[in-house]
Write a structure and sequence with these properties.
Helices cover 40% and strands 10% of the residues. The protein has 702 residues and is α+β, with helices and mostly antiparallel strands. A five-stranded mixed sheet has the order 2-1-5-10-11, covered by helices on one side. Helix 9 (213-222) crosses helix 11, helix 15 packs antiparallel against helix 22 (583-595) and helix 16 (369-378) packs across helix 18.
């Protein structure tokens, strides 16, 4: 008869423990399963909400603008520095290997998060708990991509959890190669450079497709701390970090010891940082026009400008060296079609971004006589005509010459060469002051012109670029000139977005009027007040000096280039010894000798006729009704405060201006009968006769 096994009381605790383990294990397994399901749902949902690959390639951080000079040199990078997008297959293998070795050695094997790295980070976090230190080494390349594209750098455990979830979703949606492509084209490398192409162009001056092994090592080393290891900020630190990266690559058998030795980062040549001080006056002016040229976009673009770096350097040096102490200087050069080849808006862009070439409005002095004589020539006056230099009074205003004497019977050419004020007043009165103002507006003066007799001596404020434009029209034989700085705009892939049109079909002056004006301007440089502007080849130009030496001007042209120079103080205080025939004319000569050095000598269409022996300095002085004389102004636009004027001086200038306005009693002279103008006997088939008749007020049927 069999016996039932007796129960062993000693096994009961073991069975209870086993049941407890099974129950707890089941609960944990259920929890893990539920969490896994929830995580899977979260990952799937997040994956579904992710943009597709092409959309992720677009930059969300603003437009990148690379500005080129006329020879293609990049002179300024604007906005975040995104270079060209480099497809994965075009990225050098050394670059991908260096990045993986440095940032995520298990990149090819994990699912978006690296458990080993996370365990190490947790250990570090426990050790340094309470010390305010962040987790180290926990972020994979995929997590970094998620943070760069979708999150911020604000540190919190919630952000880290969101980052991990996004990384898992990214790994499900994209291939490893796509993730690397996105990462390498989006990660920040310092100095405003986002992506390997921007970094390569900034630090080495060539595209990322041409990266060598040591160059790739330096770039890969920047991700850890871009500001600390930047090659431009600390070359030694960058080289040292590059060697660390090469060591990691060798340790992971991505390169062999020979390659590691030969790839010495010390031998990497860095690209020189572009000189941006002088060119920024130009780029600020040119880039302000972008909105009117192309549609708004976030796509990176390349802006190809008209700036000539050789001329710009010469212009910067000239203004620095030639401007009187305590004064400011400005210079602008236009090519025959209006292309701006050089622009200097002040002595130092860093200390003052105010552009005196395009923003400041100042009295032009005798350089404004260009419009007086053009109006006279257009009405039938000839350079060889005789006129009497004698006392003249117009509406109570009596201009005088600086010499305090009168020359009697002289030629128009002589009067212009030596800048006689009385003759300018006579001619202005003869043709009509409204006609002179219309001529100035026709040739590009954009500021208001007060139609009073004293206007012939340059008492209305103008801008340097506008005056230079007017002289360029004469140099171009009467064809319109519109200053421009942007020749074309392309995408970073070369797609053309804008091309500057050819504006050479509008005629503003009859060719014979432009030729005769050139004759007068050439004489002023050859033997008159502008002799300091000579450069050893044909030059035509005019000086200008305002009362009490507040402003000095010289504007002239030679060999297809027209250059305007202005000097003065921002607060309009007098500059001792300043006159257009001295510092500005000499600055023009110094600069233009360099600017036209590689250009052929271009003779003018007219021969110089030497003037009479009378010499009249170019110093405009006034006698008579004060209402005809405009006070010196600040030179700043209405919405820009003068930078250095103390309150007392500002109030005094305001009082002077108000006083002059209240005393003004001059009435605009009426325009002479256009039917009485002399027939020129000249004709040119290229001239737009109907348009010119309309401008001149001619009536072909009258």
């Amino acid at each position: 008869m069999s016996r039932k096994p007796s129960k062993n009381p000693q096994n009961r605790p073991q069975r209870k423990a086993l049941r407890l383990v099974l129950i707890v294990g089941g609960i944990l397994a259920t929890i893990i399963l539920v969490l896994a399901v929830l995580l899977g749902i979260a990952v799937y949902t997040t994956k579904s909400s992710l943009p597709d690959f092409d959309k992720l390639k677009a930059s969300p951080n603003g437009q990148t603008i690379r500005v080129h000079s006329n020879d293609g040199t990049v002179i300024v990078n604007m906005g975040p520095g995104y270079g060209r997008w480099i497809p994965y297959n075009d990225i050098p293998k050394s670059m991908t290997q260096a990045m993986i070795a440095t940032e995520d050695r298990r990149f090819r094997y994990h699912i978006g998060v690296d458990p080993v790295g996370m365990m190490r980070a947790v250990g570090v976090a426990i050790i340094h708990h309470g010390q305010g230190k962040r987790w180290q080494g926990a972020s994979t390349i995929t997590q970094q991509l998620a943070r760069n594209v979708f999150l911020t750098n604000n540190y919190s455990f919630a952000r880290k959890a969101r980052e991990a979830l996004l990384a898992l979703a990214i790994e499900q949606k994209f291939t490893k190669n796509q993730i690397l492509e996105l990462y390498l084209n989006r990660v920040y490398f310092g100095g405003g450079a986002y992506g390997i192409d921007a970094a390569s162009r900034k630090f080495y001056g060539h595209p990322a497709t041409q990266l060598s092994l040591p160059e790739a090592a330096i770039i890969a080393g920047l991700v850890k701390a871009p500001s600390n290891y930047s090659p431009t900020a600390d070359p030694e630190a960058a080289v040292s970090r590059g060697r660390v990266v090469l060591g990691l690559m060798a340790e992971q058998h991505l390169i062999n010891p020979t390659e590691q030795i030969n790839a010495d980062p010390q031998n990497v040549a860095l690209s020189a940082e572009p000189h941006q001080n002088g060119v920024r006056y130009f780029t600020d002016w040119a880039l302000a026009q972008l909105d009117s040229l192309i549609e708004p976009s976030t796509e990176p673009i390349d802006v190809w400008t008209t700036l000539d770096l050789g001329m710009q350097r010469a212009a910067d040096t000239t203004i620095q060296d030639s401007t009187p102490k305590g004064a400011q200087g400005a210079l602008v050069t236009l090519d025959s079609d209006g292309a701006v080849r050089a622009m200097v808006g002040g002595r130092d862009y860093v200390s003052s971004i105010y552009n005196r070439a395009t923003q400041a409005t100042r009295q032009p002095g005798s350089s404004f006589k260009l419009f007086v004589y053009l109006a006279a020539l257009e009405s039938g006056v000839r350079p060889d005509d005789r006129i009497v230099d004698e006392p003249v009074t117009i509406n109570g205003w009596s201009p005088r010459n600086a010499s305090r004497h009168f020359s009697g019977d002289i030629s128009i050419r002589t009067a212009f060469a030596f800048s006689l004020n009385t003759i300018a007043a006579k001619l202005g009165s003869q043709v009509g002051f409204n006609t002179v103002a219309t001529m100035a507006k026709r040739l590009g003066i954009t500021t208001p012109i007060d139609v009073v007799p004293s206007m012939v001596l340059g008492t209305s404020d103008v801008r340097l670029i506008d005056m230079t434009r007017a002289f360029a029209v004469v140099a171009r034989k009467g064809i319109a000139v519109t200053p421009y700085g942007i020749s074309r705009i392309t995408t970073s892939y070369g797609k053309l977005l804008y091309q500057h049109p050819d504006n050479s079909d509008q005629v503003l002056l009859a060719p014979w009027v432009a030729a005769e004006m050139t004759d007068l301007l050439q004489t002023a440089v050859a033997t008159g007040t502008a002799r300091a502007a000579q450069i050893g080849r044909p030059v035509a130009g005019k000086t200008g000096t305002t009362s009490s030496s507040h402003d000095g001007w010289f504007i002239g042209f030679s060999s297809g280039l027209t250059t305007g120079v202005w000097m003065g103080r921002d607060d309009s205080k007098p500059v001792p010894g300043l006159s257009g025939g001295h510092a500005p004319a000499m600055a023009f000569s110094k600069y233009m000798r360099v600017a036209v050095a590689d250009r052929p000598v271009v003779p003018f269409d007219t021969q110089v006729t030497l003037p009479d022996s009378q010499v009249e300095p170019d110093d405009e002085t006034y006698f008579g009704d004060a209402a005809a004389i405009h006070p010196a102004t600040s030179g700043l636009p209405a919405d820009t405060p003068a930078p250095t004027l103390p309150p007392a001086v500002t109030e005094k200038h305001a009082e002077d201006a108000d006083d002059n306005r209240s005393k003004g009693n001059e009435k605009p002279a009426t325009k002479p009968d256009s039917g009485k103008e002399k027939s020129t006997g000249h004709a040119d088939p290229a001239l737009d006769k109907n348009w010119l008749d309309n401008v001149l007020g001619h009536n072909p049927e009258g």
